[in-house]
Design brief:
17% strand; two-stranded parallel ribbon; alpha+beta; 414 residues; single chain
């Protein structure tokens, strides 16, 4: 196959590569370790084989001395399956969006490919939901006790309350759509004595999140650092090229044994209480290609004070995000004490939920836990003093339009 440069800059690059290859005993192609990288490597092979037939392919997940030397010591041929997959994907991009592409030409865009088509579909569906949304008014009824906590109306008998499985903290009662019904509940609460009918206490284990893949890195970088997906990938590319993180285009949560051992060693020295009994394994998505590792730091022990002076602020912030998520993924679960208090006034039941973090575990590095909400130490059949019984008027809201991080999350879930 014949490849031709389309502009002066490309022609100069090709000329320089040919000149360098003609003076070399062997050419190593070390493009990105994915399908697109393999296709680029194939293009280079077709161009350079004219001046040097000794061309081999090497690949690595991190640009470190160990990884690069190991790759050069174990060269391989170009992978025809990856090349075919990359070319097929490029073809699919064009075929899926070819009907829609003319719509964006006047906007300066070249085409609508398979990803843009799906994104357009998601955005349009969300816009229809917003346009067709009809707000609904409802009421939330709650009581406050002199013992220092708030309880929400809970519909149904005691059995149905006990069977409830949700561990989320409450912000409203069961929805009531008639104002008169809400007023009746408040009146019942005010004229009837209140007592505790059940106190449920349990400790739950909350496992750490897996290390970053491309989509989750884009989401968290957007919410925590305010970077767009495109900005995130540019900063991550820079970190990769500087040898600070592994390859940043991946859908795998797998970590190398070498890194897991290094993480355990780091925890032994810095946070021995956070070492899990067994090495943490994260559930692999059945649709994951598993071609690469998750995104992680190349060296856990790089001094942060030194690194901060060597790279930009955005690079350091993203690096720190990746470092924390990676080390957290190898820590013990967090232990959370959850309490549910069920009270009764007449025939009406009220429910309060609280939680306290007993052991931070992984959340010492990656805190995604809800804030503590402590309930008083109360006992079954204890009488309660009513301080307040009120109605809160609320209205349902339409779904919000997608921001870039939310769109990435939605697309990944689909």
């Amino acid at each position: 196959m014949r490849f031709e440069a389309k502009d002066f800059k490309s022609k100069k690059i090709i000329k320089d590569l040919k000149d360098a290859a003609s003076k070399s005993t062997k050419v190593y192609i070390a493009t990105d370790p994915d399908r697109e990288g393999e296709v680029i490597g194939w293009h280079l092979y077709e161009i350079l084989k004219i001046v040097n037939s000794k061309i081999v392919r090497v690949s690595y997940q991190e640009i470190t001395e160990r990884a690069v030397k190991n790759a050069i010591s174990n060269p391989r041929s170009l992978n025809d399956d990856l090349i075919g997959a990359g070319l097929a994907r490029s073809c699919l991009d064009k075929l899926v969006g070819f009907k829609g592409s003319p719509l964006v030409w006047n906007l300066g865009a070249k085409s609508i490919g398979r990803v843009q088509s799906a994104v357009c579909h998601l955005v349009c569906n969300r816009e229809r939901e917003i346009i067709n949304f009809k707000p609904v008014d409802y009421f939330s009824v709650f009581v406050e006790y002199s013992q220092g906590f708030k309880s929400f109306y809970s519909h149904g008998g005691l059995d149905s309350i006990i069977k409830e499985k949700s561990d989320e903290l409450q912000s409203e009662s069961v929805r009531i759509y008639q104002h008169q019904e809400a007023k009746t509940l408040v009146e019942l609460a005010k004229r009837s004595p209140h007592r505790i009918v059940q106190v449920n206490r349990k400790t739950i284990h909350k496992n750490p999140s897996p290390p970053f893949i491309t989509s989750s890195l884009q989401q968290e970088s957007g919410s925590k650092l305010g970077l767009s997906p495109d900005q995130t990938m540019k900063v991550a590319q820079s970190l990769y090229e500087k040898g600070l993180i592994t390859y940043m285009r991946t859908d795998s949560v797998a970590l190398s044994e070498e890194f897991c051992h290094a993480a355990r060693k780091w925890l032994e020295n810095k946070d021995s209480q956070n070492i899990p009994t067994n090495q943490t394994k994260h559930r692999i998505n059945k649709n994951s290609q598993e071609a690469h590792e998750a995104i992680r730091p190349s060296n856990l022990n790089y001094p942060s004070s030194q690194l901060k002076s060597q790279i930009s602020e955005s690079e350091f912030s993203l690096y720190l995000l990746i470092w924390k998520r990676a080390i957290a993924s190898q820590c013990r679960p967090a232990l959370i004490d959850k309490t549910t208090i069920l009270s009764q006034s007449g025939s009406v039941f009220w429910q309060a939920k609280g939680q306290m973090v007993n052991f931070l575990g992984y959340a010492r590095y990656w805190n995604n836990l809800s804030a503590d909400s402590q309930l008083p130490d109360l006992k079954q059949e204890q009488s309660l003093g009513l301080s307040k019984a009120e109605i809160e008027f609320k209205t349902t809201s339409p779904p919000s339009r997608y921001g870039e991080p939310q769109l990435v999350a939605r697309g990944n879930a689909s």
